[in-house]
Design goal:
This is Blue (type 1) copper domain-containing protein. Keywords: Signal. It comes from Fraserbacteria sp. (strain RBG_16_55_9). The protein is α+β, with helices and mostly antiparallel strands and 153 residues long. It has a single domain, classed as Cupredoxins -  blue copper proteins (Immunoglobulin-like), CATH 2.60.40. The chain contains two helices and ten strands. The strands form two sheets. Strands 3, 5, 6, 7, 9 and 10 form a six-stranded mixed sheet that branches. Strands 2-1-4-8 form a four-stranded mixed sheet. The longest helix has 24 residues. The N terminus is likely disordered.
């Protein structure tokens, strides 16, 4: 790994932390919630590929359950050969490529190049219990079935 790659990785990690901190504050979470989680150990890993989301030990696009009010580090890994996204919401609007209702307003989602990975550190909103969805809203991906039910309990 050369110096340029390390610098770019550090820049993206820093930008991600800043963006997530801003989203956390916008959602009414204290910044201290983000500082308490060990950033090296993921609580959940979600693999992304053509055209699925998958948690280890479960079928592709099987429902994913999260506990409301729980702090989680979720690692996303694009094991596919093309760009994929992960957005969280309800009622996909394919004309605008957004959800009509976002699980975390202000969170723009993840965009992962092939073989890229990223971690999202969040406090699962306790006031958002119910059925949601994780979807890839790239043209053609959602339509090909790249979505899965997300249940906040």
């Amino acid at each position: 790994m050369n110096h340029k790659q390390v610098t770019r990785r550090h820049l993206f990690k820093t930008a991600g932390v800043v963006a997530l901190s801003g989203a956390a504050l916008q959602l009414g979470m204290g910044a201290s919630a983000l500082a308490q989680k060990d950033p090296t150990t993921a609580d959940l890993e979600i693999r992304i590929g053509e055209f699925y989301f998958q948690v280890a030990g479960k079928d592709k696009n099987a429902p994913i359950e999260l506990e409301a009010g729980k702090e989680l580090l979720i690692k996303f890994v694009n094991e596919g050969s093309i760009l994929h996204e992960a957005h969280f919401g309800r009622t996909a609007d394919l004309a605008t490529r957004r959800y009509q209702e976002e699980l975390m307003p202000g969170f723009l989602g993840l965009h992962l190049a092939p073989q890229q990975q990223a971690s999202v550190h969040l406090l699962v909103p306790s006031d958002r219990k119910g059925e949601w969805e994780i979807g890839c809203l790239i043209t053609g991906h959602y339509e090909a079935g790249q979505k899965t039910k997300l249940v906040i309990k």
